[in-house]
Fold this protein.
Amino acid sequence: MGPEIAVIGAGGYDAEQITLRAARVLGSTSAVYTAGLPAGTLRHLCKFGPPVFPLEPLFDPPAGSCAAVARFLCAAALRSGHVCYVVTGNPVCYNYVLPYLQPLAQTQGIVVRHIAGVSALDNVCIALSLDIGHTGVQVIDAGRILRRELSPNPGLPLFLFAVGYTRAPRTEPGPDPFNSLYRALALHYPDTWPVVHVRCANGFGDKALIQQTKLRHLAALAKGFDFASTMFLPAMSQSA
C-alpha cells in the first residue's frame, strides 16, 4: 500500500465528537498532525497512541503558509507511509490547506482520504435549536462579507463563520475590523436587526454561550469573539 494522508474532522471544540471511524484510523497511523485544535482535544488525541504534533508554527509568516503545511504533510507521508492531519469540524469545510495538499499529493503518488467529522454548522444549529431544513440557510466566511466579496441574502438565515479571525481590509481605515463588518452588513440589514453570538460548548463541563444584541452594537458584542465563535442573523422574514 502506498503513502496516505488521512484528513480527519475532529468535530466541534468537543473531543467526544471524534467518530469511531476516525478513532480506528488514529490508532493505526504513524503520526498525527493537527491544526486549530483546542487543548482538550489535543490531550484526547494523545490517548490513541501515535505521537501528536501541532502544526500552527508552519502557518506563521513570513515563511509559513498553507502551502508549507501541505509540503510538510506530503514529506511526512512519503517518509512514514501513513499520517493523519486532524482539523476541527468537517475535514473539507474551511480547510484552507486542502487546495494545496490534494494536487501536490497527487503528483507524488500520495492518497488523500477524508474522514468525516461533525461540522461547526451542526453544533451551532443544535445550540440555537434551528432546523435549517425548514428555514433554509446561508453560510459565509465573515472576512468575505467584510471585504465585500459576497453579499448576504437577507431573506435567509445567515451564519458568519471565522468571525474570530476577521481582519479589516487594507482600504478600510481604523483599528477595529468589526466596525468595517458592521458597515458591510448595514448595507443589507437595518441597524436594529438582531445579531447573535454563538460559542459552542467544548464538551468538558462547558455550556454553549448565546448572546444577542442589535446590529448597531456589533463592535461591543465582538469583544467576546474567539476561534469557536459564530455569528447568526435571522432572516428578515423571521423574528429573532
